[in-house]
Structures are given as C-alpha cells and as structure tokens.
Amino acid sequence: MCRSIKTLRPPVLPEEATEEDMRAAALQYVRKVSGFRAPAAHNREVFEQAVDEITEATRRLLDGLEVRGAARRPVSDAA
C-alpha cells in the first residue's frame, strides 16, 4: 500500500476530510497503480480521469461510512 495515503475518516482524522485530502489520496493511488509520477502527454487525460473518479468514489465512501461513537457526516450535495 502507498504509505503516503493517510486515513481520512474520523477519529483518525479529527476534522472532516477536505476535497484536497481526497484528491491527494486519489493521486497517490493512481501514481502507485500506474507506476507514473507524472503521466506523459498521451496518458494525461486518462490519468486525470482516474484521479477524478477515485476522488468521487472516496467522497461517496466517506459519506456512507458509519463510524461507531462518531456523529454521522451529512451527505454532501455534490453527487
């Protein structure tokens, strides 16, 4: 697993994960899976699309998680 991806749910992350937190985790994941730190021009579109999709999947996951002993996060309007 990519060591620079941090846990984004409470109580590990005391505050709510930001869009930047989710995008950074998605970027690290795509870099690890693809083997590219920065894609070549001919791969840039698919690389960025993957980051966007994983960011959105992360948002849905965090919005849907129910952590015992923590208040449930409100569902975001961006769906």
Throw out a few tags for this protein.
single chain, 79 residues, mainly alpha, elongated
Could you give the topology of this structure?
Blueprint (H helix, E strand, L loop, with lengths): L18 H16 L9 H21 L15
Describe the fold and architecture.
The chain is mostly helical. Helices cover about 45% and strands about 0% of the residues. It has 2 helices and no strands. Helix 1 (about 20-35) packs across helix 2 (about 45-65). The chain starts with 18 loop residues before the first helix and ends in a 15-residue tail after the last helix. The mean pLDDT is about 85.
Please give the radius of gyration in angstroms.
14 Å
What is the N-to-C order of secondary-structure elements (H for helix, E for strand)?
Answer: HH
Query: What level of helicity do the residues show?
Result: 40-55%
Number of E-type strands: 0
Round the mean pLDDT to the nearest integer and report it.
86
Largest sheet: none
What is the 3D form?
A: elongated
Q: How many H/I helices? A: 2
